[in-house]
Amino acid sequence: MNHLLRPVAPLSDTVWKLLDEEARARATPALAARKLVDFSGPFGWEHSATNLGRTTRLASGPSEGVSGLKRRVLPLVEVRADFELSRAELSDADRGADDTDLEALDKAAHQIALAENVAVFHGWPSVITGIAEASPHKRPALGEETDGYPRQVAGAVERLLSSGITGPYGLALGPDQYRRVVETAEHGGYPLLDHLRKILEGPIVWAPGVEGAVVLSMRGGDFVFECGQDLSIGYDSHDNEVVRLYLEESFSFHVATPEAAVALKP
């Protein structure tokens, strides 16, 4: 038995399979950061820190004539989203119901994906340095009109190239900006989405939690998401009416090359 305590939950294997599939289906579209940065792992719940390959010299050694260095590591963080499901609904799922109410799970899956995106792209104060806050480049505004999007994205790519950062490049778009892009066709009917892809030579990703947009290199090695335990459902407790569960993961995020991204304000 591991820390998720799934074997002691009052849920059948059929229901666990249903919940796992639902969580995966709901979370995957929103996990934007994983589509654009390097993903390493999962290494398991026991994995606690990411090696940075650096040291800090200690003020003194343990004895005369001996000096000391302390290894520097990046601790993993744990994030968790709790939710409750009706035991009656889950019993109906065991009977073969195909319309089980899993709204609470769907909400938790979106919340934890949103939290992951915010941490990676904008940071988590005193915990994780995000891509946008680490970038040394100026942050121009995308603006309200999509006519200006190609110019701003092309400008971001040019700044990356000028910094010696090669492509292909990816683009994380906040929900409002993504909606504007997919709804818009430029003059002559040429879709803006296709135009931006030609500029980037890489993917354009719907990214809940992103404010504006982030253009980043996908050459590899610049941004590393290290996963301990990947998103998993665990059991907390239950009573006659509900089962209390949670979605949980552990990860670290490291910006190795701050200049490999340009953030664009809304």
Structure commentary:
The protein is an alpha+beta fold. It has helices at 13-27, 32-36, 87-94, 103-121, 131-134, 149-162, 175-183, 192-200; strands spanning 38-40, 49-57, 69-75, 77-86, 169-173, 204-206, 213-217, 223-227, 232-238, 242-255, 261-264. The strands form 3 sheets. Strands 1, 4, 8, 9 and 10 form a 5-stranded mixed β-sheet that branches. A 4-stranded mixed β-sheet has the order 6-5-7-11. A hairpin with a 3-residue loop joins β9 (232-238) and β10 (242-255). α6 packs parallel to α8 (192-200). The longest helix has 19 residues, at 103-121. The termini are far apart.
Q: What is this structure, in a nutshell?
A:
31% of the residues lie in helices and 27% in strands. It has eight helices and eleven strands. The protein starts with 12 loop residues before the first helix and ends with a strand.
Helix content: 25-40%
Radius of gyration (Å)? 22 Å
What structural class results from the helix and strand content?
Answer: alpha+beta
- Uncertain regions spanning at least 5 consecutive residues: none
Characterize the main sheet: 5 strands, mixed
The number of distinct β-strands equals 11
Label the overall shape.
Answer: flat
Whole-number average pLDDT? Answer: 95
- Distance from first to last alpha carbon: 47 Å
Number of helices: 8
Q: Strand percentage, roughly?
A: 25-35%
Order of helices and strands: HHEEEEHHHHEHHEEEEEE
